[in-house]
Amino acid sequence: MGSFDYECGAGPVELTGDPSDPRSIVIENGIVRVTYPQLASGPDQLGAHMLELMIDGQWRRVLDNWYGDWTFFASPFFEPAQAVHVLTESPDAVELAFEFDHWLDFPGSYSTRGHVPRWWDASTDGACEDSASCRCYLEGCGLPAIDFTGEAIFPHNYLDVPKYIRRVTFTKVIRVERCGSGYFVGYHSSPTLTWGSWIEDHPHLNGAGERESGLGWMASVTFASSGVVVRNPEAGGHRSLAITEQAVGPWWFSSMPAAPEGYALFIAQEHAMPSFVWQFDPTHTGTPLVHKMNPQIEADGRPGRYQSFIGAFEYLMTDREAEPTPEVRAAVISRLPLQWP
């Protein structure tokens, strides 16, 4: 049964939609359904997918309608996926690669460091250096290129400003398997922003930017394999889930929505990655996520295809103060991938 060693009674995995129209893609296995809709956030979450769970014979969205699975790669996206590549299509698994032409020079508040971003029109907007509007989300309108030791790369005989990466092909790989209660997620880019040797030794470093994947703005109670429990809004601010401090796997965290919605969510990790619950206001619910979708370098020297698995299952939270119960912990553990494709 692939990554899930049990018989669930569900049917085969089905793929519908036209790969030339990424928004039309739907993958389902009778337990969950994954779509790529235009979310309520509009241009703010152009890379996000939506997970739906079969509850009482009806498909129900279980991720936040604004953020979906909180797909973020170094800077906001200018455009949605431009192409979908079908990697695997069988009754046991459907695997797709969503491809983005991802520019990192998104407008923001940081200095361009002399670079003129591609969206700036000097003929109508004037000289870039004279306008406070000509700024970027990232300092220098991109990320410095980094070698395998984690050191910035400088052009020959020009040691003041490092070489910047301002455009990548970002690929988000998704896999749904028969009997899976969710979907595998993999982040990759060309050129790469990470190198295995230094990112594995220092997983929290910001040299490759924020590369986030999560559950959206929805959490009332979040608990992790590390033993950490976070309650929002009681936490009052950002909290670490201490996943990278957990020496031995499996690594995972699970969240329940702010009201008794009848389901719980979880993210399993192929290897330990920095994970948090963001809370931006004292009254807000939590935003559980993987902060750095770091690659795992396999024995052949190449990065593994998947970093995480996003899942959901039916569960009714009746007494918030008693959460997490042994029942909900067992429900998460029973649905973790037993192997990673």
Walk me through what this model shows.
The protein has 341 residues and is mostly beta strands. The chain is built from three helices and 22 strands. The longest helix has 8 residues.
Helical segment count:
3
Topology, number of strands:
22
Q: How does the helix and strand content classify structurally?
A: mainly beta
- Give average pLDDT, whole number: 94
Strand composition percent = 25-35%
Biggest sheet overview: 9 strands, antiparallel
List the topology elements.
Blueprint (H helix, E strand, L loop, with lengths): L13 E3 L9 E3 L3 E4 L14 E6 L2 E4 L10 E2 L9 E7 L3 E11 L3 E4 L11 H4 L17 E2 L19 E2 L1 E11 L4 E9 L5 H6 L9 E4 L4 E6 L4 E3 L7 E2 L10 E7 L5 E7 L5 E4 L8 E4 L17 E7 L11 H8 L8
Antiparallel strand pairs: 1-2, 2-3, 3-4, 4-5, 6-14, 7-8, 8-12, 10-11, 12-13, 13-22, 14-21, 15-16, 15-18, 17-20, 18-19, 19-22, 20-21
Short overview:
This protein has helices at 122-125, 196-201, 326-333; strands at residues 14-16, 26-28, 32-35, 50-55, 58-61, 72-73, 83-89, 93-103, 107-110, 143-144, 164-165, 167-177, 182-190, 211-214, 219-224, 229-231, 239-240, 251-257, 263-269, 275-278, 287-290, 308-314. With 341 residues, the chain is mainly β.
